[in-house]
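Q: Is it fine to ask for two folds in a single conversation?
A: Yes, each is treated on its own. Send the first.
Q: Here.
A: Result:
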Amino acid sequence: MKNNNKKLPVPRFEYEGKKLTYPVKKVFFVRAPKKNEEIPLSAWANARRATPAETKRFRKAYENTFGRKPPRRGRPFNGPAKALDIHIKIRPDVLTRVRAEAHRRHMGYQTLINEILLRHAA
């Protein structure tokens, strides 16, 4: 492998009419990963975080392109919960029978337990 001592071009970025320059130590070209192939950590070694100005610019570009604000990060809010997560103790033989009955009816065993409780509690 040849060791070329050529100077690498310095990338230039424009933010709202201002030109900024970032010095580059080395440029690594990593091939695109194949399907189901992990990206090596070395590929991210020279990555940098987006500046607040870049983030603002990207959001504006998204709004101009799609006509709406970009989606928020994280799990979306789905409104009030349909059911609460609880913990109960059930004898193993009862659970086995409930699961068998639920399988026979082609439904989930927790749904069957919920129906039984609704029938007897009402």
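Q: Second one now.
A: Result:
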Amino acid sequence: MKMKKKLISVCACALAAATLFAGCSKTYEIDFDTDFGDIDEEDILEALDAIGFDDYEEYEDGAFSFTGSQDYDYDIDIDAETDVSYFSYVKCSDEETAKALFEYYYENTYEAVIDGDEDLSGRSASEFDGNECYVIIHGSVDEGDTTMIYHDLLLLKGDMVLIAMSNPTESSEIVDSRNEINTFLDSLGYPNP
């Protein structure tokens, strides 16, 4: 009987330790099964309205580029930057342009985190399948003097690219940014990071 109690105690301690160490794990993947439904300009404007933001920029039939990048032709470009978050919806002129824009964002903002080159304390998920790709990241990366906060979604669907990016400048703004992004994505029927 004494041996059985000791074995139960040892097993309980081992289970507690395993639970403790699993809880300390720094990075894990988000496990979800979702279908990113089609969205359009009206859906984006409703999602911005859901977070109480109406100071956005909307452009039609143009092109933009980043320093050293190609031109990205678009039919519609809606950009909104709140005090704590950034949102961009771009309906590109074609799927090839949308794929190139997604790749630009991915390579310059998320690739090092997803590939494990930067030590993410948090969780992530990604899928790359033709013109339906996504990256979801929640957590932080310590970069020496600064800490990068992520609560982001980058999505490519056909000829559309959507980005919802956390952009707090102070630690007191992190929760506000996450809440804002969650409300925006909930309005679209998309998962939260």
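Q: Anything structural to flag on that second result?
A: Two points. Confidence is low (pLDDT under 50) at residues 1-31. Strands lie at 27-29, 57-64, 72-81, 85-92, 120-129, 132-143, 146-157, 160-166.
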